[in-house]
Amino acid sequence: MSELHNREVDPVTGHDTTGHDWNGIKELNTPFPKLVIWALVLTFAYSVIAWVLLPAWPLGRDYTRGLWALDQDEEAVTGYRALETGRQGWLARFTESDLEELRADAGLMAAAYPAAQRLFGDNCAACHGTAGQGGPGFPVLADATWLWSGEPAEIALTIRHGINAEDPETRYAEMPSFDWMETGDLEALAQFVAGLRDGTADAGSPAATLFSENCASCHGEGGEGGLGVGAPSLTDQAVIYGQDAATVLETLRHGRQGVMPAWTARLSPAEINLLALYVAGLDTAGDEAGQ
Questions:
Q1: GO cellular component annotations, sorted alphabetically (predicted)?
Q2: Domain 183-254 sits in which CATH superfamily?
Q3: What CATH number labels 74-170+260-290?
Q4: Taking the domains of the chain in order of start, what are their residue ranges?
Q5: 219 assigned ligand-binding residue
Q6: The dihedral of CA 105, 106, 111, 115: what is its sign?
Q7: Structure confidence by residue, pLDDT tens digits, 4-60
Q8: Is 181 annotated as a binding residue?
Q9: 20 is in an annotated binding site
Q10: Does the annotation list 161 as a binding residue?
């Protein structure tokens, strides 16, 4: 009876207090929410059911399979095999060597485009960008400027064997070092090459003679490239490393040798041809997107 008389009830909520007081703030003795209790009960019940039905407990290198014996690895493999089976019909066409004929088949290319886009994203985008826009040290693929050719067969050859790669049939593209030149000549040549891009290079200067004697055999007399030896044009906007005078000077002093890996061990011949056709169309896709 005395306990009832000693109860202190909060006049606002009607709950008992615990008797604790912090600077006039009293703690209520409220009951545990029933919603939380039911949530805990349901969670525990679900966990017990999941332990019984689904893979759950690790057993060293193995695990309990559960009554349903689900295996996501097997499901993934099964799904992949189904996908492979479904695309074999049209993908087999890309084993043909006439890539221009394949490119002319609009229906086939439309069906293959999503797969080609995934191939590019999985194998090329990390270096060349998701849209082939390139970056420092990696050439742009979404334009009409190429070291060898933008024809699908030539692109397929590069994908197949790489550039400066370990493949025995790899292509080679190497810029040698010109550190044997006098510093003044190197600086003048760097300024001349930088001017080729914006049209400010003086064709009658001593630097033009240096260019003709040391660079033209690979890059062309006017620096236009396109000689099929892996030397880029120096007169357009598709610059791999940069074409300001300081960057050109660094290139002249130390040389350049990028590497494009060979993909024969990773991609099938049909996938390489499909990817080559996709890359060959990136400049067209970019033009259409900008219109």
A1: plasma membrane
A2: Cytochrome c-like domain (1.10.760.10)
A3: 1.10.760.10
A4: 34-63, 74-170+260-290, 183-254
A5: yes
A6: positive
A7: 556 788 777 777 888 777 887 888 888 788 999 999 999 999 999 999 998 888 888
A8: no
A9: no
A10: no
